[in-house]
Write a structure and sequence with these properties.
This protein has 140 residues and is mainly alpha-helical. It has helices spanning 3-30, 69-97, 110-113, 116-120, 125-129; strands spanning 35-38, 45-48, 54-58. The chain has a 3-stranded antiparallel beta sheet with strand order 1-2-3, covered by helices on one side. Helix 1 runs antiparallel to helix 2. The two termini are 42 Å apart.
């Protein structure tokens, strides 16, 4: 193999390692994020974690006592949707800052087979590209 080709391979490998570490760091940062949003009427605050799961629900005032059940439910859903939207925005900003991009569509090619968890956790190429079980995640 020529020296120039070896240098290009080494440079590509180093760039891959840097990008991989940046994405690992981004994933770790995203896992620490939680977002709180309030409904427009100010009746409800919902906090969600990095995965969009609610971790807190708060009623900043006693206004909820005067609301119908349907109106209160609408406020809760509005606050939850707002907090999840903000969480997604923050997570995407972290990923973009790390230099990562998410594909807008998967065409059944290699990207459809890549297990990003295994890639970021140091799986071998064979593990990363191994067919995934139907139904999603096979990490336990």
């Amino acid at each position: 193999m020529s020296s120039s080709l070896q240098e290009q391979q080494q440079q590509a490998l180093e760039e891959f390692k840097k990008q991989r570490q940046a994405l690992i760091d981004a994933r770790d940062e995203i896992r620490t994020i939680s977002v709180t949003a309030r409904s427009r009427d100010g009746v409800v605050e919902v906090t969600v974690g990095h995965d969009g799961t609610p971790s807190g629900l708060r009623f900043p005032s006693n206004k909820f006592k005067e609301m119908t059940g349907q109106a209160l439910a609408a406020s809760v859903l509005e606050a939850m949707t707002a907090s999840r939207t903000q969480m997604t925005t923050r997570a995407m900003a972290v990923i973009q800052a790390a230099g990562g991009t998410a594909p807008t569509s998967l065409d059944g090619g290699v990207l459809d087979r890549v297990d990003l968890g295994k890639l970021l956790d140091g799986g071998s190429l064979e593990e990363v590209l191994a067919p995934r079980r139907p139904g999603g995640d096979d990490r336990g």
